[in-house]
Amino acid sequence: MTHSPAAAISIRNLVKRYAPTGSGEGKLALKGVSFDVPQGQIFGLLGPNGAGKSTLINILAGMVRKSEGEVSIWGFDIDRDRRNASRAIGIVPQEIVFDPFFTPIEVLENTAGLYGIPKDQRISEQLLADVHLSDKAQAYARALSGGMKRRLLVAKAMVHQPPVLVLDEPTAGVDVELRRQLWELVKRLNDEGVTVVLTTHYLEEAEQLCDRIAIINHGEMIANKPTREMVDMAREKIVVLTLDKPVQSLPSHPAFIKSVATGASQIEITYNKDRTNAGEVMGQVQAQGMTILDVTTREADLEDVFVRLTTEV
Ligand code: ADP
Ligand code: MG
């Protein structure tokens, strides 16, 4: 596409209220989310189960209707210009759904037909090669492994060569080898200029793949930063202390972020390394009448930040 918008995706005050059903009550799945996905990036949308990630993706895909707010894809408003918005995005859904009687090549050709792409402009064979499925071109979809199906879904999402590719939990429940393959595929597409958005609840994946990470929890965005800065938020350090006897009461001090018992006579103290240091922390613990037998320290990682951000209220 020649058109070049400020952001690949722009979302403002997005609200989704699922209507109550017979069995369940209505659910406020998105509570006014705003963010931009910069062009050319791999953008990670991270959050625990039920956070609202798929709801957001399905709104982009046109499969769920938003309640309030504005969304544009590649500069096209999804209400006013749904057709162009849809043409600008390819979506790999969380659930694998295929007609079991079509072969991979037919799946891609049928999708190209739906987009009205003339036969001589289709790239089905190329796409199958890109996802290493050329040798399965004529196999029935039902005979493909889970991993092959997922790769076929990526090819299907790229049939109309959109500038934006969105993958909803591409590596949930897949084995290490397939995860690596999918990462490579995502990186290659991104190198070729495709803006990628992926949702995941694996931190390691977001940390390794993404240029930018947004964390969503209970329908609210709680952080949105370049990956480097998100990792730097881990300005925390943790000391693990083994005491000479079972922990009676946990030590406390204004400089401690958190203090928890992790064993009968073991405690973990989290502190901000800009405010204090391990020596001072140990001094405080000893001043509170405890004897330290052993000590180890570790840096907080993204996992710790994520846990803290999603459990703090
Ligand atoms: P995630 O993908 O982050 O796990 P979802 O977007 O699937 O989260 O779900 C967000 C919340 O909305 C959850 O509480 C979920 O139960 C609820 N939800 C999702 N789909 C529906 C639906 N079709 N009807 C009612 N509630 C839904
Ligand atoms: Mg989901």
Summarize the structure in words.
- The chain has a six-stranded mixed sheet, sandwiched between helices.
- The chain contains ten helices and 14 strands.
- With 313 residues, the chain is α/β, with parallel strands linked by helices.
- It is elongated, with a radius of gyration of 24 Å.
- Among the domains are: 1-88 and 162-172 and 192-232, Rossmann fold; 234-311, Alpha-Beta Plaits (2-Layer Sandwich), CATH 3.30.70.
- The structure holds adenosine-5'-diphosphate (ADP) and magnesium ion.
- The site of magnesium ion has 5 residues, from helix 1.
- This is ABC transporter ATP-binding protein.
- GO terms for molecular function: ATP binding; ATP hydrolysis activity.
- Keywords: ATP-binding, Nucleotide-binding, Transport.
- It comes from Novosphingobium umbonatum.
- InterPro entries: AAA+_ATPase (IPR003593), ABC_transporter-like_ATP-bd (IPR003439), ABC_transporter-like_CS (IPR017871), ABC_transporter_ATP-binding (IPR050763), P-loop_NTPase (IPR027417).
Topology readout:
Layout (H helix, E strand, L loop, with lengths): L6 E12 L8 E12 L3 E5 L6 H8 L7 E6 L2 E2 L4 H6 L1 E4 L11 H11 L9 H7 L15 H12 L6 E5 L7 H16 L3 E6 L2 H7 L2 E6 L2 E7 H6 L3 E8 L12 E8 L2 E7 L5 H10 L4 E8 L2 H10 L2
The site of adenosine-5'-diphosphate (ADP) has 11 residues, from strand 2 and helix 1.
